[in-house]
Write a structure and sequence with these properties.
single chain; 405 residues; alpha/beta; Rossmann fold; 2 domains; 6-stranded parallel sheet; 15 strands; UPF0261 protein CFR72_05025; UPF0261
């Protein structure tokens, strides 16, 4: 067993860090406190099992002087960089538990994002009840809301910190057995409205590939691309590129400007499509921006409102995707489902709009520089039709096997 690294600023959170440390070690799990204070402080009597901030700061590419600047903002940013380098160089980590307020969370979370997926990582934070996407990113960080501010211990903070400590001790001491799966892994993107397509592809490929499905909610796409960049995916079947709609139109599940970046950088076989490009996601109906209130809207559930993409928006989406596909040097096949982009984009359904769909197809065909390795392929099916899914699965299998299909 390695050690649990408990990360926080001892100049402001020493009591909480020590409390968590003692609970974890009391269960027989080795642990060490990592002090990321950005002000010099004299070591205390309880610091024998504490890694001092100078040690962490020394991991910064520009040395300790880049961290201890006496300017809070730059010091926190530099210590975050140092912590990322420090933790990524360790080979004895069985889990990481961070504790912090807004500044501490901003300092610790970037380092947790860089650690391997599957390694236990948790952040107890005063900001964990809001938008945690910037802190979690595409990683598997467990965020725990502290409820009260962390200024010493009280009857509630003791319980919440104990819950976190016990959870981390359990995760660190009960790692699942390593299982060898000889099948290469392939990443797929899915939304509720593209589920039939992805389910059929998984069924078609499961005998040969370890199919890893990512929910296309912005972070899902980033997680998939991170795995591809890490060499953990042998290919991508990007059925559901809907995050691009939210990115371009201000929805709540956006990708960033690096979407498709992993396919560009790695050259892994890429099979893509227009899944759910007929919609932008917003929250509850009263959160839809005023300038979109007169658009075609569908209440997906009480917390999610969908807006149909317009002709102009579909044109912009097609141009954006086309520009990214042009940068890919590996095998690329992008399929155009002429029968609709989702369960809602079919005749008789609320998002049925052949004119908007055609605008997207036209933009792609105008933008993409087609080559023998980069092709647009129209199909006379909807994205959820069995024939469409089977074609994507067969195409990916052929590309993976080196067949030019």
């Amino acid at each position: 067993m390695g050690r649990v690294y408990i990360v926080g600023t001892c100049d402001t959170k020493a009591v909480e860090l020590r409390y968590v440390h003692d609970l974890i070690t009391g269960q027989g799990v080795p642990a060490v406190i990592v002090d990321v204070s950005t002000a010099h402080r004299a070591p205390g009597p309880d610091d024998a099992d504490t890694i001092p901030p100078t040690t962490v700061a020394a991991a910064h590419p520009d040395g300790t002087q880049a961290v201890f600047t006496r300017r809070r903002g730059s010091s926190i940013a530099a210590m975050a960089t140092a912590l990322r380098h420090f933790l990524c160089a360790r080979n004895d980590i069985s889990g990481v538990l961070g504790i912090g307020g807004s500044g501490g969370t901003a300092l610790v979370a970037p380092a947790l994002q860089e650690l391997p997926l599957g390694l236990p990582k948790m952040m107890v934070s005063t900001v964990a009840s809001g938008n945690v996407a910037p802190y979690v990113g595409g990683s598997d960080i467990a965020m725990v809301y502290s409820v009260t501010d962390m200024e010493g211990l009280n009857r509630l903070s003791r319980r919440i910190l104990a819950n976190a400590a016990n959870a981390m001790a359990g995760m660190a001491s009960h790692l699942p057995p390593a299982l060898h799966d000889p099948r290469p892994a392939v990443g797929l993107t899915m939304f509720g409205v593209t589920t039939p397509c992805v389910e059929r592809i998984v069924s078609d490929l499961d005998d040969t590939f370890d199919c890893m499905v990512f929910h296309a909610t912005g972070t899902g796409g980033r997680a998939m691309e991170r795995m591809a960049d890490s060499g953990l995916l042998a290919g991508i079947i990007d059925v559901t590129t809907t995050e691009i709609c939210d990115y371009l139109s201000g929805g709540i599940f956006p990708c960033d400007d690096d979407r498709l970046g992993a396919a560009i950088r790695t050259g892994v076989p890429y099979v893509g499509s227009c899944g759910a490009l007929d919609m932008v996601n917003f929250g509850a109906p009263d959160t839809v921006p005023a300038h979109y209130r007169n658009r075609r809207l569908v209440e997906h559930n009480p917390q999610i409102t969908l807006m149909r993409t317009s002709v102009a928006e579909c044109r912009a989406i097609g141009e954006w995707i086309g520009d990214r596909l042009n940068q890919c040097r590996g095998e690329v096949r992008f399929f155009l489902p002429e029968g609709g982009f989702s369960l809602l984009d079919r005749m008789g359904e609320p998002f049925y709009d052949p004119q908007a769909d055609h605008a997207l197809f036209e933009a792609l065909e105008r933008t993409v520089e087609q080559t023998p390795r980069r092709r647009l392929i129209p199909l006379p099916y909807g994205v959820n039709d069995a024939a469409f899914a089977d074609t994507l699965a067969a195409t990916f299998r052929s590309l993976f096997n080196g067949e030019n299909t």
